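User: I'm curious whether this sequence folds into something compact or stays loose and floppy. Could you predict its structure so I can see for myself?
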Amino acid sequence: MKIVAISILLLVTSFFKTNQDTLTVTATYEGVDDGVYYFSSEEDFNTYAFKEIEDAASSKYNMADRKLIGTDFEVTYTSEEFLDEENETYEVLTITDLKLIKKN
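Assistant: Here's the prediction. I'll summarize afterward.
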């Protein structure tokens, strides 16, 4: 009976969280809107929307300060893929670390 319960638990949890990667990008801070932090990268011409930020990263800078808009950061983040109720994959980006890049 325990084997069946453990198998069901593993099967159920595998549907909710499928993959997690840690990545780093150099990007320009564009601001925060409705709790989502936006950064743009000239390296890969992408805009990143981070839905979460870890406490350790958020304590380094006040990201609500509009003076930081246009500032370059090295952003370390996790990218997690999840499956919703309709088996559609969606991605959640979470900032884990921020380093201010000083311009010369």
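Summary: Strands lie at 19-33, 36-41, 46-50, 52-53, 72-83, 89-100. The first strand starts at residue 19 and ends at 33.
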